[in-house]
Design brief:
Order of helices and strands: HHHHHHHH
Helix content: 55-70%
Shape: globular
Number of strands: 0
Distance between the termini: 38 Å
Number of helices: 8
């Protein structure tokens, strides 16, 4: 069993390395296949030893081996984060098609999170991938497409209403994201997801404003909070619902 979790972690590290490419290139409309990865400062093509997930960053001291320019530790963070999240998924899903689809879901959430942080956009191509994989996930997990449709209607419909009432204060990308998340999560988990997203988003937003990190007119992307809420809800919504009813109802 432990070897399986190690395998998930290693797979996550490798996938995370690819996600870094997606996070950097997709918003700019670049191919994620070619050209091969290169240093952003000197343009030198990176070798195998330069791209070992996480390890290369520490072995090279966070600097390019060819020009010595430092590069962001976020590359290693994305790789490590992906590995950890894949392991968490392994506690709740047996090996097979379901967990493979969940890995795609988690990887998509990571890409959407960091792209939204950087550019305040939700990538349609990632949403399409999530939509297709979400339909397959419902089929292989429980087959209850009505619950999936209810989830889409609730999460997407509520965000669409907020988008209309706020007159663009909520991004259209967040609305589309919620429709897709509703498909994956179903009705009950979608409710949990949105509750978590609004609570976390509100708390962190207040903190950023209170500390002066953000000004009142500065945009604070909501997509990362939706993605975080979606991941937590996918794995833990039954437990959260249970303890909520125990404590407050």
């Amino acid at each position: 069993m432990y070897l399986l979790f190690v395998a998930y972690f290693v797979i996550g590290l490798v996938v995370g390395s690819f996600l870094n490419v997606c996070i950097y290139r997709l918003p700019e409309g670049k191919s994620i296949v070619s050209p091969p990865s290169a240093c952003g400062s000197c343009g030198h093509r990176l070798g195998v030893l330069d791209m070992i997930p996480v390890i290369s960053y520490f072995l090279l001291g966070g600097k390019c081996r060819y020009c010595g320019m430092p590069y962001s530790p976020r590359y290693a963070l994305v790789e490590f984060l992906t590995g950890c999240l894949f392991v968490l998924c392994g506690f709740y899903y047996l090996p097979g098609i379901q967990i493979a689809l969940v890995f795609v879901f988690v990887a998509s959430l990571i890409v959407l999170t960091f792209v939204d942080f950087d550019h305040q956009i939700i990538l349609d191509e990632v949403l399409i991938l999530m939509l297709v994989c979400g339909a397959a996930y419902v089929y292989f997990s429980h087959g209850d497409y009505w619950d999936a449709l209810y989830g889409m209607g609730f999460a997407g419909g509520l965000m669409l209403l907020i988008f209309i009432l706020s007159r663009g204060g909520m991004g259209a990308g967040d609305v589309k994201l919620c429709f897709v998340l509703g498909l994956w999560l179903g009705l009950k988990a979608s409710i949990v997801c949105l509750m978590l997203a609004f609570i976390l988003g509100g708390a962190i937003g207040v903190f950023l404003l209170a500390t002066g990190i953000k000004k009142r007119k500065d945009p604070i992307p909501f997509g990362p909070f939706l993605c975080l809420g979606a991941f937590i809800s996918l794995l833990y919504s039954p437990y959260l619902i249970y303890y909520y009813w125990r404590l407050f109802v």
